[in-house]
Amino acid sequence: MSTEEENKASIAFEIEFEKNPNAPIPEHYKKRLEEESQKSLNDEELRTKLKTKLKAAEERKKKAEDEKAAKAAQEVAHAKKVAEEQRRLSDAQKTENLAKLQENLVNAEARREGAQKEKLEKIAKHHDDVNNISKK
């Protein structure tokens, strides 16, 4: 039996063994368990070892699922934290941009008033010059 076939048979047997603990144990399973124990095992010892191995595998699976769920929860918490930080920075930047726009508006208004005052002064000077020329 090839390794892939043994793996498929092992999975099928493990499922069957969980449902029916009295299911016959395949030879490759017996051989593997005896090699691990380094001794010949009777049927009861084989079944006990199998139950122990299946329980350990189930615990590893549950632990892996718990770790995966915890990691997902951490990622969600981190994503929320990053989103909140980006929103906060965005709000701060909007406030800063608004302040700059208001400052630019004030500066533009001051320049407009200055230009208008300068224009009125030029008109007044021109008017005075015209009056001075007409008086002569």
UniProtKB/TrEMBL annotation:
Region (Disordered): 1-27, 59-96, 111-136
Record's compositionally biased regions (Basic and acidic residues): 59-70, 77-94, 111-130
Domain of life: Eukaryota
Protein name: 11060_t:CDS:1
